[in-house]
Amino acid sequence: MFTQRQLLLAKVESSYGVDAAPAAAANAVLAKMDNVQIAGKTLARDNIMGYFGAGAIVNALDSLKIDFTTEVRGSGNPGTVPDTGVLFRGCNFAETITASVKVDYDPHSSAGIPYNILLLAQNSA
């Protein structure tokens, strides 16, 4: 896998199951991919067939396990959410924005984890 050609996109869904449609220009996160692996199951279809041969398998619960490293940094403007803010929210940090002053993240949030979309785009060419 060409690790130089990977892009991590992160965006919060408006509601569960609704595609957040992250865009590279607005939702790309500068990150170093440490490990990417498919975390899913394969299910055997034990159907009766009228011929000899291997039965089909179905991929189920496909997801990715992504270990990555990113820089913790501000946005450069007081009171503006940094591009890594969506990652903190996905880890159950509460985000408090004080306009034109600061953005705080509380690791002991009781608000619940938002529905995040993390996309890993790869180009093998």
Please tell me how large the radius of gyration is: 19 Å
Secondary-structure element series: EHEEEEEHEEE
As a percent range, the share of strand residues is 35-45%
- Strand order in the sheet with the most strands: 2-1-9
Which structural class is indicated by helix and strand composition?
A: mainly beta
Q: What is the general shape?
A: elongated
- Report the helical percentage: under 10%
Query: How large is the count of helical segments?
Result: 2
> Largest sheet, described in full?
3 strands, antiparallel
| Average pLDDT taken over every residue | 81
How many DSSP-defined strands?
9
Intertermini distance: 10 Å
Uncertain residue segments: none
A few lines on this structure:
The chain is mainly β and 125 residues long.
Kindly describe this structure.
This protein is mainly beta. The chain contains two helices and nine strands. The protein has a domain at 37-68. A three-stranded antiparallel sheet has the order 2-1-9. Strands 3-6 form a two-stranded antiparallel ribbon. Strands 4-5 form a two-stranded antiparallel sheet. The model has no long low-confidence stretch (mean pLDDT 81).
